[in-house]
Specification:
A hairpin with a 4-residue loop joins strand 3 and strand 4. The relative contact order is 0.09. With 685 residues, the chain is of the alpha/beta class. A 7-stranded parallel β-sheet has the order 11-12-10-13-16-9-17, sandwiched between helices. A 6-stranded parallel β-sheet has the order 18-23-22-19-21-20, sandwiched between helices. A 5-stranded mixed beta barrel has the order 2-3-4-6-5. 39% of the residues lie in helices and 19% in strands. It has 4 domains: 81 residues, Orthogonal Bundle (DNA polymerase, domain 1); 96 residues, OB fold (Dihydrolipoamide Acetyltransferase, E2P); 198 residues, Rossmann fold, CATH 3.40.50.300; 158 residues, P-loop containing nucleotide triphosphate hydrolases (Rossmann fold, 3-Layer(aba) Sandwich). The structure holds adenosine-5'-diphosphate (ADP) and magnesium ion. Magnesium ion (MG) binds next to helix 11.
């Protein structure tokens, strides 16, 4: 949180003994400056402050022991090893070495007084310590024990623990001398939270005293750790609020709600909006009438009816002669939206068009022209919507569907691309982001502190819960039989093949093989295949056939994950569900249970399942509540995975852990507000 020229921002090479080579090592573990170094915290500690009597050793416990060698032998078991019996007044333990030198053998000879550190475990000769660290002591010497816990840092080859410790200590000294490590948090706050100051916390964590609670430190729950986590979360939070304020400072088109047109629209959709949908429509509509850009997240479980809500928002823009861009994560979904939006808006006289990476050059040229001259009101597509050369006439609203695929960076990028100039100076379009991955409150407060929220809670009336069954792929025959039965009843089935090693080609191959197998096993059925290698036209033809019930069974890769809507499909088989995240499984499962028949999802796993895998599939069996699933996903996989931002490096905290530290978040939020009010110049630049 420090700015300006200061010691804390000096490169590590200013430490004595750090040359270019070592600086390179440091940067491998993410350390460039002194600040990085002092916030490079140990991930665990060793207690080398006291001697454990050998008779009191417990398995899987690290301990310092001191005793006399009763002799050493080389034994030739499954692996050749050197054994040494070490004894004190309370008992004996075996030291075992698989790699050893002549000099080590001498060190261990009968009668040597040895100080050892290592982990005891059950071995073939009772309690053993494998490869302990050993120091040989003079016969009359007392062991020289540490007076503080020993920190173990994330390290790398060529940068040993010992050197890291020295450098950290030096950096801390330098900063202490220069009077840096300023306390950003007001005293009242740290007092209220019962947290130590910044400097004290750092000192404590780099060199905890003998009586520190290892258990607390291991869990990251020590007040000193909490203090630093708090600071980190706060810094992140302030950044988001800063972004938000910056955005809000821009102008956006004022778009009054076109009451009459909205009435007409509601008449033609063929159903009543649920109370939750109506509330979201109101919230969005209010934002659009403001001269500042909206930045709102529309959250709603799979099938909750977000599309129609976004369509009403779109109508508010196009009725005011502004354009709308609707971005979807896949081509299939973009095409589906194109269909819905064309059905809704063409009769009202608005032109809706599609632009994806696969749009042919000629069509693309025409589309771009009509986009630039304002003929097109709504442009639907994938990332292609914001590529070079795509010029809008007057973009008023950007709608992003299934936000979790895009990540936070892209969100920021879009904002800028959408900006444009008109007679009144620069203005920004409003933004509506839709996600079917319910975002756990925890993440909502941290990752999305820059957004407003609307939530569609609850599904449209008449939805039936999907029964989920987890079974081994050894029972494929039973599954095949079940498919036959369901199709005999006039229902349809999805068979989803999951990702193999992230390779789209292999995935398509797997789907093709599955198709062949299923065709052989189910000769009476009409079976289709859809995967990413098909041309857009082929894909939509396949989808149309399935929708029209010209196909009974659709074999698909995860391309059908989002947006596909076929109410007559009542069974989904997902092969190797253990490869997918919970959120993705939940999305897939949302494709069934849309009609009036009882629906099923069969998770056909490949044994053996890891403990993790078992837990995940159990969650799927036990709940269909997207929020519960998202919370579990966060717990099991961490926030980066949940938000799809792992690659982009968003939300990678050094110290804080969003799951562990969620209790801090309400206070973080409060502190941010206080700081902005009391010291705006300090936190808001
Ligand atoms: P999602 O939130 O997953 O994007 P969709 O917008 O695709 O969901 O809606 C799923 C289905 O529910 C669509 O067929 C849509 O027409 C239908 N639907 C949406 N709102 C309602 C409603 N209020 N009553 C009945 N059906 C609705
Ligand atoms: Mg949708």
């Amino acid at each position: 949180m420090n700015t300006g020229d200061s010691t804390i921002e000096l490169p590590v090479s200013t430490l004595s003994g750090v040359g270019p080579k070592l600086a390179e090592k440091f940067s491998q573990i993410g350390i460039q400056t002194l600040q990085d170094l002092i916030f490079h915290l140990p991930f665990r500690y060793q207690d080398r402050t006291r001697l454990t009597p050998i008779g009191g050793l417990q398995p899987s416990q690290d301990a310092v022991i001191c005793g006399y060698s009763k002799g050493s032998d080389i034994v030739f078991g499954r692996r050749r090893s050197l054994l040494c019996r070490l004894q004190d007044d309370t008992g004996t333990v075996t030291l075992r070495f698989f790699h050893f030198s002549k000099s080590q053998q001498i060190q261990l000879q009968t009668g040597s007084k040895l100080l050892c550190y290592g982990e005891a475990r059950h071995g073939s000769s009772g309690l053993e310590i494998y490869h302990p660290e050993i120091t040989r002591l003079a016969d009359n010497a007392e062991p020289n024990l540490d007076d503080r816990l020993t920190p173990i840092y994330p390290a790398t080859e060529g940068l040993s623990q010992k050197r890291l410790r020295t450098f950290v200590a030096e950096a801390m000294n330098k900063l202490d001398e220069s009077g840096e490590l300023p306390e950003l948090l007001p005293v009242e706050l740290t007092q209220k939270l019962r947290m130590p100051g910044l400097k004290d916390s750092l000192l404590y964590l780099h060199r905890p005293p003998q009586n520190a609670s290892l258990a607390e430190l291991d869990e990251g729950e020590h007040p000193a750790q909490q203090r630093l986590a708090f600071e980190e979360l706060l810094a992140h939070h302030l950044t988001l609020i800063r972004n938000r304020n910056r955005l809000r400072a821009h102008r956006a088109p004022v778009l009054p709600a076109p009451a009459a047109k909205i009435e007409i629209f509601k008449q033609q959709i063929g159903f009543e909006l649920t109370a939750a949908q109506a509330r979201c429509v109101r919230e969005i509509s209010d934002d659009l009438t403001q001269p500042r850009p909206m930045l709102r997240l529309l959250q709603g479980d799979v099938g909750s009816g977000k599309t129609v809500v976004s369509a009403i928002a779109a109508l508010q823009a196009i009725a005011n002669d502004y354009q709308v861009a609707l971005m979807a994560p896949t081509e299939i979904l973009a095409e589906q939206h194109l269909l819905s939006f064309t059905n809704w808006f063409q009769p009202m006289g608005f032109k809706v068009a599609l632009l994806t990476g696969k749009t042919r050059a000629k069509t693309r040229r025409e589309t771009l022209e009509q986009l630039a001259n304002g003929r097109i009101s709504i442009l639907i597509g994938t990332h292609a919507l914001f590529q070079e050369g795509v010029e809008y006439h007057n973009l008023g609203l950007v709608i992003i569907d299934e936000q979790h695929r895009f990540g936070v960076h892209q969100r920021l990028e879009l904002r800028d691309k959408g900006s444009s100039s008109d007679n009144n100076g620069e203005h920004y379009p409003h933004q509506l982001i839709m996600t079917a991955t319910p975002i756990p409150r925890t993440l909502a407060m941290s990752a999305y502190a820059d957004l407003d929220f609307s939530v569609i809670d609850g599904l449209p009336p008449g939805r039936k819960p999907v029964t989920t069954v987890v079974l081994s792929d050894k029972r494929r025959d039973e599954v095949v039989e079940r498919i036959q039965n369901i199709c005999n009843l006039g229902r349809q089935v999805y068979w989803v093949c999951t990702l193999i090693e992230e390779s789209e080609n292999l995935q398509c191959q797997a789907a093709e093989d599955t198709l062949i197998n299923l065709q052989a096993a189910l000769p009476g059925l009409r079976i289709g295949l859809i995967h990413g290698r098909l041309k857009a036209a082929e894909k939509s033809k396949m989808m149309d056939q399935f929708k029209a019930h010209q196909l009974d069974l659709l074999v698909a890769t995860t391309v059908i994950e989002v947006g596909v809507d076929v109410p007559n499909a009542s069974l989904m088989v997902i092969e190797n569900p253990e490869r997918l995240g919970l959120a993705q499984l939940h999305q897939l499962r949302g494709r069934v249970g849309r009609g009036d028949a009882e629906s099923f999802c069969l998770l056909l796993y490949h044994a053996p399942l890891s403990q993790h895998g078992k837990e995940r599939l159990k969650v799927m069996r036990e709940t269909s509540d997207g929020f519960v699933i998202a919370e579990k996903d966060l717990e099991l996989r961490g926030p980066g995975e949940v938000l799809g931002t792992r690659q982009t490096g968003d939300l990678q905290f050094r110290i804080a852990d969003l799951v562990r530290d969620q209790g801090l978040l309400p206070e973080v939020k409060l502190a941010a507000i206080q700081l902005m009010e009391n010291q705006p110049q300090r936190v808001m630049h």
